[in-house]
């Protein structure tokens, strides 16, 4: 079943997550004994006038400090049961009655595991410390009564007046007071804060911008009243007050007047007053550690080790029971627990962790998915078992590059093939105005009502050219410098900056038909007509787009006529109730949506000077409110949004990314169920799903009707269940009914309840919550920035790379780890079985079979390299895995690591351990040391041959590992005279006995493997043959 989730509430994911984070943050502050954050009044240039104590402006991303590093790392290691278990085993060797051999036998393996962990943690802490030191040591200029002084970022205080140059990082959360830019505004790069690549326009406080020089900021008596520190980077409520003017000046402050820390000044030099520092910075409060994801594979391995622990306890009890609990039997139980401790392999965790590092390195080095980054190296096996894929649409499946496709005026529509007609209409209007302006002004009311088609087109195009947040920026092109390009509105030097690619596409289209946006600043817009005449408009008010309102508006005054016009554009669902009654809006919106176009409704309303003055007075009053400001402002704006004149509909298309269709088909054939989440109209979502082959052309689509209660939802679900091979389209409102009090980002948990793994893919900041909640999060580096990419477990540059990431790397990682884990367990069970046989033969004595270096060498230099080389094994070539995604489907059942395969390996271990031990006992001649020599050599050879038996595709490093391990063992025999008779191993008697035992332990398994491949081959072997 594929699905399309058409939800207007995708952006609500972040808001709900933010609300939760605020609560958590506040609780944390209370727990730490810190004061609850409160609103503050900050005097300009006078940090000594502070009302409360504020944190130092220090960035600290380290988990530990010098004193807490060692205890912190040790605590994090020993809070896990099995690490604590091995620590207790090692400590028990200090008790004489429990000692079974040399202390290093237990302490060296444990010390190695801890050393690897501590070195890794220390390296990470050192990197964090160096990064923090670099940021905290950056030098800034501070305005003081003595002039400009240099100050480190870490020494900046609340109330300081800080100068920030172009391309410099903003060191603290500040209110924007002054800029050197002529247009009285500046641009910010916010990609390090919110992940969005577009530049944001910021406006200084009007009162301070008008001052002659920056030093005058210290001469005025003024302060900023600011809300308490919080996590919301998209909103701010505050006021600016100047007390020494007559009358006192009050200005409302909003997000447009802020400069948040971690943003970068993109234009000019700015001066700001510091509001928040240190842990109260918006960027710091938004930095929360995402939940540590533990892979399903790791949980399964943990489950198997618990079974092994149970087996360890049972075997120890059985041994003591067979002694009839004689003497100090409780000490015997502990000694047997120590003796059989190899049943639980201490090296299992290290091998698997090192394997994950190898998988991550291989993914990064894959030339067929360039730019792929592994940010979470703990869960690569998850990629091999994904059942549900949740994907964002815009920027993930599509390129987020908008192309203007359709202009609809109600009675006539213009497509790409008829844009020249629009151009001619615009040209005719301005030609007519130039030739006979008085005639145009003298049109009767009736003529205005029955406007010609040219004037209707002109009104629509002018509205689109004015109603936006796009700013033209002029850059040097090597021939013309920036100042000259800006002065002459040079087309070749102009670049459009906006918060949305839709906006840029609309403005570029108006330029193509003759009405060009050439200039914009805080208070004015300049358009250029087809004849080269500059049209000047004054911006009176602007109402930015928000996800809640789904619309944006602007009030402008035409400088040539003095007319005041309110333009608005937005989604049809909200605009339908704002525009005057018409009979074509809903139908045409549906038609354009079915073509896969993103539809915007454009409207206008003419205002008289009196109407505007009345509105402005109420609007300014609402903006000065500190409490419920957003509600009061919205109420005032809504008083204008009535009976607006519908001008046109615009349709832009977002092109699909390269190879989206074959990638989605591959995922579907691999048994992965794909859900697309989008904020588009239902018709647009359905059209895109078909176009992307998320839904096949022959597949039925079931549109889940809007339900209001659980009863209706069950009826609708029953209707859906009766259909076969059907795609489901469900709205966010209906989803809320199915899962009450669960927002869209929790959708992944809904899938997790089925016991299946979910993968979430997205490219924007609003996808971060979904990515972090999913079992496996994949971020796409796209037009919307890197926020999703940085928050994800894996980062890719294109959606098509997801296919190879799952089919090849996910599949290989899972199969390799399954083989590696079971082989490490087999290696430990073999020697434990031999110990059990040895103890049983010698009257259940708790005496170790191997001591000292033998027991350490067995799991390290003698077998470590061949066993670990299994991380290079693969059953099929990557091309075959991509060509036959059905191979991936086999993994969803978890067969490579299951109770069945585990039991088979346990039986193999018991068989081989028993054969080797009984064989050595039967064939040894007189001395005990011969048993050790024969059995240990047979054990090493058996392990090396079993690795060879397990390998499916040989790599040259595997051969090197086998030969190296064998060479190390042979060479070390010279130094092991304490445990092995050196003269005995040089005899033919030793050689034939070891050969016979090794053959008996391994040959039957080779025969069984051959017969299985011959008569019941696995699916992948059929393809390789």
In short:
With 1025 residues, the protein is α+β, with helices and mostly antiparallel strands. The chain is built from 37 helices and 33 strands.
Characterise this structure:
45% of the residues lie in helices and 18% in strands. The strands form 6 sheets. It has a 9-stranded mixed sheet with strand order 15-33-32-31-16-28-1-30-29. Strands 18-17-27-26-25-24-23-22-21 form a 9-stranded antiparallel sheet, sandwiched between helices. A 6-stranded antiparallel sheet has the order 4-3-5-14-6-12. α14 crosses α16 and α18 packs parallel to α22. About 4% of the residues have low confidence. GO terms for molecular function: ATP binding; ATP hydrolysis activity; ATPase-coupled intramembrane lipid transporter activity; magnesium ion binding. Its EC number is 7.6.2.1. Its main location: membrane. Its cofactor is Mg(2+).
List keywords for this structure.
1025 residues; nine-stranded mixed sheet; 37 helices; alpha+beta; nine-stranded antiparallel sheet; 18% strand
Q: Name the overall outline.
A: elongated
What integer is the average pLDDT?
A: 83
- What percent of residues are in strands? 15-25%
- Total number of β-strand segments? 33
Query: In which range does the helix fraction lie?
Result: 40-55%
Low-confidence stretches: 6-33, 445-450, 741-745
Largest sheet: 9 strands, mixed
Overall radius of gyration: 36 Å
Q: Within the largest sheet, what's the order of strands?
A: 15-33-32-31-16-28-1-30-29
Helix-strand category: alpha+beta
Family: Belongs to the cation transport ATPase (P-type) (TC 3.A.3) family. Type IV subfamily.
Domain P-type ATPase C-terminal: 790-1017
Organism: Zonotrichia albicollis (White-throated sparrow)
Binding site for ATP: 392-394, 503, 545, 569, 598, 678-680, 749, 766-767
């Amino acid at each position: 079943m594929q699905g399309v989730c058409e939800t207007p509430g995708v952006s609500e994911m972040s808001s709900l997550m933010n609300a939760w984070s605020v609560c958590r943050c506040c609780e944390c502050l209370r727990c730490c004994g810190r004061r609850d954050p409160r609103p503050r009044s900050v005097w300009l240039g006078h940090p000594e006038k502070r009302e409360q104590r504020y944190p130092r402006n220090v960035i600290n991303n380290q988990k530990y400090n010098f004193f807490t590093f060692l205890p912190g790392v040790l605590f994090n290691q020993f809070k896990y049961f099995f690490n604590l278990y091995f620590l207790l085993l090692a400590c028990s060797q200090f008790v004489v009655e429990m000692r079974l051999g040399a202390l290093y036998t237990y302490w060296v393996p444990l010390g190695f595991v801890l050393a690897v962990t501590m070195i890794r943690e220390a390296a990470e802490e050192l990197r964090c410390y160096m990064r923090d030191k670099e940021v905290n040591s950056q030098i800034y200029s501070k305005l003081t009564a003595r002039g400009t002084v240099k100050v480190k970022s870490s020494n900046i205080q609340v109330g300081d007046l800080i100068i920030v140059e172009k391309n410099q990082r903003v060191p603290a959360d500040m209110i924007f007071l002054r800029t050197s830019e002529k247009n009285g505004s500046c641009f910010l790069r916010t990609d390090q804060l919110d992940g969005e690549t577009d530049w944001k326009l910021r406006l200084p406080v009007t009162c301070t911008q008008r001052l002659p020089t920056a030093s005058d900021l210290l001469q005025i008596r003024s302060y900023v009243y600011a809300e308490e520190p919080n996590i919301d980077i998209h909103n701010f409520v505050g006021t600016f007050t100047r007390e020494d003017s007559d009358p006192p000046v009050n200005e409302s402050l909003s997000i447009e007047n802020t400069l948040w820390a971690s943003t970068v000044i993109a234009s000019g030099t700015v001066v700001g007053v510091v509001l928040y520092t240190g842990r109260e910075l918006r960027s710091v409060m938004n930095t929360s550690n995402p939940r540590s994801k533990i892979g399903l594979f790791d949980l399964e391995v943990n489950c198997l080790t618990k079974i092994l622990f149970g087996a360890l306890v049972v075997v120890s009890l059985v041994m003591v029971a067979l002694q009839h609990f004689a003497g100090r039997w409780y000490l015997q139980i502990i000694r047997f627990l120590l003796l059989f401790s190899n049943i639980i392999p201490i090296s299992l965790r290290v091998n698997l962790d090192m394997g994950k590092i190898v998988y991550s390195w291989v993914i990064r080095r894959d030339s067929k998915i360039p730019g792929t980054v592994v940010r979470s190296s703990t869960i690569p096996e998850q990629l091999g078992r994904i059942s549900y894929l949740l994907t964002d649409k815009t920027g993930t499946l599509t390129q987020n590059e908008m192309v203007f496709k359709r202009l609809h005026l109600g009675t006539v529509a213009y497509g790409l093939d008829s844009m020249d007609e629009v151009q001619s209409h615009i040209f005719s209007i301005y030609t007519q105005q130039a030739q006979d302006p008085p005639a145009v002004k003298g049109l009767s009311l009736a003529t205005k009502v029955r406007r010609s088609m040219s004037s209707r087109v002109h009104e629509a195009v002018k509205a689109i050219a004015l109603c936006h947040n796009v700013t033209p920026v002029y850059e040097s092109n090597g021939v013309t410098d920036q100042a000259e390009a800006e002065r002459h509105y040079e087309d070749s030097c102009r670049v459009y900056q906006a918060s949305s690619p839709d906006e840029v596409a609309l403005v570029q289209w108006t330029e193509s038909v003759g009405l060009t946006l050439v200039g914009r600043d805080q208070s004015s817009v300049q358009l250029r007509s087809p004849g080269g005449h500059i049209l000047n408009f004054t911006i009176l008010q602007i109402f930015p787009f928000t996800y809640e309102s789904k619309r944006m508006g602007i009030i402008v005054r035409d400088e040539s006529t003095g007319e005041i016009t309110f333009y608005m554009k937005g989604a049809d669902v909200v605009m339908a109730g704002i525009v005057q009654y018409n009979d074509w809006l809903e139908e045409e919106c549906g038609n354009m949506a079915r073509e896969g176009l993103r539809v915007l409704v454009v409207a206008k309303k003419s205002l008289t000077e009196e109407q505007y003055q009345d509105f402005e007075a109420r609007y300014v009053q609402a903006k000065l409110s500190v409490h419920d400001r957003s509600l009061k402002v919205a109420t005032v704006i809504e008083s204008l949004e009535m009976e607006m004149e519908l001008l046109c509909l615009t349709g832009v298309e977002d092109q699909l990314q390269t190879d989206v269709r074959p990638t989605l088909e591959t995922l579907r054939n691999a048994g992965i169920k794909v859900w697309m989440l989008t904020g588009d109209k239902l018709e647009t979502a359905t059209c895109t799903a078909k176009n992307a082959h998320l839904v096949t052309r022959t597949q039925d689509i079931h549109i889940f009707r809007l339900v209001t209660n659980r009863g209706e939802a069950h009826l609708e679900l029953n209707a859906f269940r009766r259909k076969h091979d059907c795609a489901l389209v469900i709205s966010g409102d209906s989803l809320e009914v199915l899962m009450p009090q669960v927002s869209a980002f929790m959708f992944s948990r809904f899938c997790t309840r089925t016991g299946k793994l979910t993968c979430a893919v997205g490219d924007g900041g609003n996808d971060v919550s979904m990515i972090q909640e999913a079992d496996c999060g994949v971020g796409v580096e796209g037009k919307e920035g890197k926020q999703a990419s940085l928050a994800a477990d894996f980062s890719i540059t294109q959606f098509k790379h997801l296919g190879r990431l799952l089919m090849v790397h996910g599949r290989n990682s899972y199969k390799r780890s399954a083989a590696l884990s079971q082989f490490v367990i087999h290696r430990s069970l073999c020697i434990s079985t031999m110990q059990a046989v040895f103890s049983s033969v010698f009257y259940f004595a708790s005496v170790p079979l191997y001591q000292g270096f033998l027991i350490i060498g067995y799991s390290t230099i003698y077998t470590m390299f061949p066993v670990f080389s299994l991380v290079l094994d693969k059953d099929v070539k990557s091309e075959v895995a991509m060509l036959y995604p059905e191979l991936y489907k086999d993994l969803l059942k978890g067969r490579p690591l299951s109770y069945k395969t585990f039991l088979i390996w346990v039986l193999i271990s018991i068989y081989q351990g028993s054969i080797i031990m009984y064989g050595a006992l039967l064939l040894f001649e007189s001395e005990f040391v011969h048993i050790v020599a024969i059995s240990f050599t047979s054990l090493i050879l058996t392990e090396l041959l079993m690795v060879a038996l397990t390998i499916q595709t040989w790599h040259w490093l595997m051969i090197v590992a086998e030969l190296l391990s064998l060479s190390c063992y042979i060479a070390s025999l010279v130094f092991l005279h304490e445990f092995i008779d050196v003269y005995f191993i040089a005899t033919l008697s030793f050689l034939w006995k070891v050969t016979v035992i090794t053959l008996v332990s391994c040959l039957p398994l080779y025969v069984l493997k051959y017969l299985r491949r011959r008569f019941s081959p696995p699916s992948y072997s059929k393809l390789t043959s």
